[in-house]
Amino acid sequence: MALRHIVARHRSLFAIKPRLYPSSFTTGIASPPLKKKKNKKTARLSFSVSASSMAYPPKKVLVPVANGTEPLEAVVTIDVLRRAGAEVTVASVEKQLRVDACHGVKIVADALVSDCVVAAFDLISLPGGMPGASSLRDCKILENLVKKQAADGRLYAAICASPAVALGSWGLLKGLKATCYPSFMEQLSSLATAVESRVQVDGKAVTSRGPGTTMEYAVILVEQLFGKEKAEEVARPLVMRSNHGDEYHILELNPMDWTFDQGPQPQILVPIANGSEEMEAVIIIDVLRRSKANVVVASVEDKVEIEASRKVKLVADMLFDEASKLSYDLIVLPGGLGGAQAFAKCEKLVHLLKKQKESNRPYGAICASPALVLEPHGLLKGKKATAFPAMCNKLSDASKIENRVVVDGNLITSRGPGTSMEFALAIVEKFFGRRKALELAKALVFTHP
User: Fold this and answer.
1) Does residue 346 carry a catalytic annotation?
2) What CDD domains has UniProt attached to this entry (predicted)?
3) What element of type H or E holds 202?
4) Collapsed DSSP state (helix, strand, coil) of residue 369
5) Within 13 Å and on the Cβ side, how many CA atoms surround 331?
6) Distance CA 285, CA 289 (A)
7) Is the domain of 67 the same as that of 169?
8) How far apart are CA 380 and CA 384, in angstroms?
9) pLDDT given at position 27
C-alpha cells in the first residue's frame, strides 16, 4: 500500500489541550475584561445565579446579509453563535428576504433589517464579501443600528472587507486596533490602528481577516458574549485546528490521479437536506466554486429551500431528481445528523454513489455522513476513512480515524465543521494540484498570506 502523508508545520495558536481555546490565539485583545471583586455575598449567590441562568433572556445577535455577502463568513458565524445558545436574527438589507451571496450561494434571511430597528442586540456582526460589504455600508438603517450599538457600549463586530468598508467608514474604529482582509488593510490604516491579527478585540469592537479566520472569529464572539467556559464548550465539537495559519495536511493512501472528463472543470455534486450541517455545506460549496469547479447543489427534499441544522435557510440550485440525471467527477456529502439520515434514505443518491464507486470515480463525505451514509451502504468497504469523533465507532475500519482528512484512492472523508476547509482544499488539491490549493488557502486567509 502506497502511503503519502503531508504534515503541516505546528505552531500552536489554538491549543486544544489542556485548554481548548486561549484568548491569546487572537494575537491581540486590547482591552482585558475587568476583574470582579469577590466577597462572601457574591460567593453565596454564585450557585443560585448559575442554577437559574436559564431565567435570563437569551443573548440577541443581529447578522445582516446582502447580495454579494461572503456566505461562508455569514453562515459560520450564525451557526457557531446559535450553538452557543444565542438568539440570532439574520436580516436582509435588500428588499426581499432571499439574498444571492457570493459564489452562487442563496440564503433566506429571517427578517428585513427594517424589521429590526426597535430591537436591542447584544451583538451585531457584519460578514464581508464584495459588493456585500458596500451594501451593508450604504444601508442607513443598519448604520444607525450599529452606531447606536457602539454608543450604548454593546458589542459590534465585522470580518473581511467590512471592518474597513463599513465600520471604519462609519467612524466606529477610530483610535481602536482592528484587522481586515489583507487587500483592505491600506484603507483600514486611515480609519483605525491596523494590525494583522487573525482576530482582534479592542473594547467592544471585534474584527477579523477573512473566510479562513471565521471560525476563530465566531468562537471569540461566543467568548465575548458568554465567557470563556461557554466558548470552550462550543469549540470542542467543532474539531478546530490547533495550528491556525499553518499549511493544512492530509493523509493519502493508495494515491491515484483525480481527473475530470465531464467538462473543462470538475463537475461536482453537493446534496443538501433539512438538517444538513450548514457550515460544512457552505464551506465546501464556497471553496470549490472559488477553484472554478462547477458545483451543483441539489436538495433531496421535495423543494429547493432547506432548513439546515442550525436553522439557516439555504436554497439549492435544483431538486435531486433533476441533478441525478447528470454525471459527476465527484459527489461529496456534508454532514449534520438530520441531513445524513435523509441522504441514507434517498435511494437515488445511494444508487448514484454506488455507481460512482463502481466506476472508480471520486466520492466523499464529512462529519456524520461517512458513518451514517457511506458505511451502511457498503461504500467504505476496503477503504480507510474518518468521521465525526462521536460517530467513528460506527466505522468498520477505525484505523485512520484520528486524521483530519483521509484520502484513500477515490474516497475522501473528514471529521467535522472545523475540518471542512481542509477537506475542501484537499479536493482542490486532488483535481488541480497542491500549488493551486495553497494559493487558494492563502487567499482565504486560512493559511498565512
Assistant:
1) no
2) GATase1_DJ-1
3) strand 199-202
4) helix
5) 28
6) 6
7) yes
8) 7
9) 45
| This prediction's pTM | 0.89
pLDDT at 55: 54
DSSP 184: G
Catalytic residue of the set 102, 116, 367, 392: 367
CA-based nearest residue to 255, from 409, 437, 385, 411: 409
Of the CA atoms within 13 Å of residue 185, those in its CB half-sphere come to 13
On whether both 222 and 118 belong to a single domain, the answer is yes
Give pLDDT tens digits for 338-352. 999 999 999 999 999
Across residues 84-98, what is the average pLDDT? 98
**pLDDT above 90 for 52:** no
Query: 463502481: which residue's cell?
Result: 358
Beta bridge partners of 363: 331, 411
User: Which of 238, 266, 288 corresponds to the end of one domain?
Assistant: 238
Report the domain count for the chain. 2
For residue 165, give the C-alpha cell: 468598508
Q: Give residue 57's pLDDT.
A: 83
219-269 tens-digit pLDDT: 999 999 999 999 999 999 999 999 999 999 999 999 999 999 878 999 999
66 and 128 fall within a common domain:
yes
Distance of CA 196 to the CA centre of its chain: 21
Tell me which of 21 and 247 has the higher pLDDT: 247
Distances in Å between the Cα of 321 and the Cα atoms of 271, 298, 303 are 11, 9, 11
Q: Decide if pLDDT at 9 tops 60.
A: no
> Could you tell me the residue range of the domain that residue 98 belongs to?
23-238
| Residue of 268, 304, 263, 251 whose CA lies nearest to 415 | 251
- In whole angstroms, give the CA distance from residue 308 to residue 336: 8
